[in-house]
UniProtKB/TrEMBL annotation:
This is DNA-binding transcriptional regulator NtrC. It comes from Maridesulfovibrio ferrireducens. Keywords: Activator, ATP-binding, Cytoplasm, DNA-binding, Nitrogen fixation, Nucleotide-binding, Phosphoprotein, Repressor, Transcription, Transcription regulation, Two-component regulatory system. Gene3D superfamilies: 1.10.8.60, 3.40.50.2300, Homeodomain-like, P-loop containing nucleotide triphosphate hydrolases. One of its GO terms (biological process) is phosphorelay signal transduction system. It is found in: Cytoplasm. Signal peptide: none annotated. The modification 4-aspartylphosphate is found at D53. Residues 4-118 form the Response regulatory domain. The keyword Glycoprotein does not apply.
Length: 457
């Protein structure tokens, strides 16, 4: 894509020379002698680089520069000035000009400056496109779900995103906690700044401290240079701390200090460094229980849990499963250059009735496996992994998902609710058929639906 350059100069000769030179180099040139017309052109057109004379009637080059910096901060500006006005050009550099050249200029000097600015403009354009792609990818609209629990999650993201308060995302492994953290960031005023992710469980306490806080040169064996940590890297953006429940006691104390004082010190350093970040944390642990057990600091818990977003497990939002299947089937079909009509009704029944102990991540992996291994255009029950079809495995997975501390009556209620829900799915939500499958009367089934708060569709 050719670079679009806007040239502003009230001297017609310079306009003609610059337009001819830069057009020959393959640039798209718009040359205007009136700076006010030029600013109007900027507002309506795609411009990658502005070259402007410093002294012009109506508006000066500085006026043009200030307008561009305020409204199009990604566009570099090159200032042209007479030799005797270099001081004003230097002043323009201080407020954000990319470069300045003096009139009369050498062609080589001009071309070098334009080449550098064009490359910078290309990088800026690519970064903007990448940010837009990331923003689209991690928009709340791209988190799949139409169930009531997920609508509540979307509402919480929308309400929490504009603020700076810490957010604690809870939920089982595989429910998509990092996706929600990304959506919070991309929907916030910090979206153009970094989103930095750290898995607190993946690193030992010593390594994690250096990763988060950075270190000074010589602070420990192997610290051969100063290194900025994740807190500094996330400045003006969002720091996502996954598996926050795995932090050691010492790291909990240090994180609490950061949240309170908004400053850090690198390992081996004494200087306090002010940071401006939003912290989003996630865990699959029950932090309230961890506080009661003395393994997690109560003051840190309340600092993190200013806004709480709980992600439901997939088994509690089964109405979302068909939409997720369609999404992942399209995704992996495209990646593997295959075409599928979909899942057969019987295969879809199995997928909808399964307990999904690994949640969305497991569902995603199963669909990818089916796409890779299925030779036809329809995914049938024979194409499903054994655990999806195995009634005993499904029952075992349901039992394994029960809390370890639960009395028999509660356990039986949960298992019965699971069987009722599965029968509804397999009967396509026809209650008479579901009751027949379970060996119940229709009135008894209605009672159990009400007892377990199971909707008919």
């Amino acid at each position: 894509m050719a670079t679009n350059i806007l040239i502003l100069d009230d001297e017609q000769n310079y306009l003609l020379i610059l337009e001819a030179m830069l057009s020959d180099e393959g640039y798209n040139i718009t040359a205007l002698s009136d700076p006010e017309t030029g600013l109007a052109f900027l507002d309506e057109s795609e411009v990658d680089l502005v070259i402007t004379d410093m002294k012009m009637p109506k508006l000066t080059g500085r006026d043009v520069l200030e307008h561009v910096k305020k409204n199009f901060s990604h566009i570099p500006v090159i200032i042209m000035t007479a030799f005797g006005s270099i001081e004003s050009a230097v002043e323009a550099m201080k407020i954000g000009a990319f470069d300045y050249i003096t009139k009369p200029f050498a062609n080589e000097e001009l071309m070098l400056s334009v080449t550098k600015a064009a490359q910078f403009a290309k990088t800026q354009r690519e970064n903007r496109m990448l940010r837009e792609q990331i923003k689209d990818r991690y928009s709340p609209n791209n988190i799949i779900g139409r169930s009531k629990p997920m609508l509540q999650v979307f509402e919480m993201i929308q309400k929490a995103a504009p603020g700076n308060s810490t957010v604690l995302i809870t939920g089982e492994s595989g429910t998509g906690k990092e996706l929600v953290a990304q959506a919070l960031h991309q929907s916030s005023p910090r979206c153009d700044n970094p989103f930095i992710s750290v898995n607190c469980m993946a690193l030992s306490a010593g390594v994690l401290e250096s990763e988060l806080f950075g270190h000074e040169k010589g602070s420990f064996t192997g610290a051969v240079a100063l290194r900025r940590g994740r807190f500094e890297m996330a400045d003006k953006g969002t720091l996502f701390l996954d598996e926050i429940g795995e932090l050691s006691h010492d790291m909990q104390v240090k994180l609490l200090r950061v949240l309170q004082e908004k400053t850090i010190e690198r390992v081996g350093g004494v200087e306090s460094i002010k940071i401006n970040i939003r912290i989003v944390a996630a865990t699959n642990k029950n932090l309230k229980e961890a506080v009661e057990n003395g393994t997690f600091r109560e003051d840190l818990y309340y600092r993190l849990n200013v806004v709480s977003i709980e992600l439901p497990p997939l088994r509690e939002r089964r109405e979302d499963i068909p939409f997720m299947i369609d999404h992942f089937l399209a995704k992996y079909s495209a990646e593997n250059d295959k075409k599928f009509e979909g899942f057969s009704p019987a295969a879809m029944d199995y997928m909808s009735a399964y307990e999904w102990p690994g949640n969305v991540r497991q569902l995603q992996n199963v669909i990818e496996r089916c796409v890779v291994l299925t030779s036809g255009t329809v995914i049938n029950t024979d194409d499903l992994p054994a655990e999806i079809k195995d009634e005993e495995a499904q029952f075992k997975s349901a039992v394994d998902l029960l809390p370890t501390k639960i009395n028999l009556a509660q356990a039986l209620d949960k298992i019965e609710a699971t069987l009722v829900r599965r029968a509804l799915v397999q009967s396509n939500f026809v209650k008479v058929d579901a009751a027949e499958m379970l060996g119940l009367s229709k009135s008894l089934l209605q009672y159990k639906l009400k007892k377990y708060s199971i909707s008919g569709k």
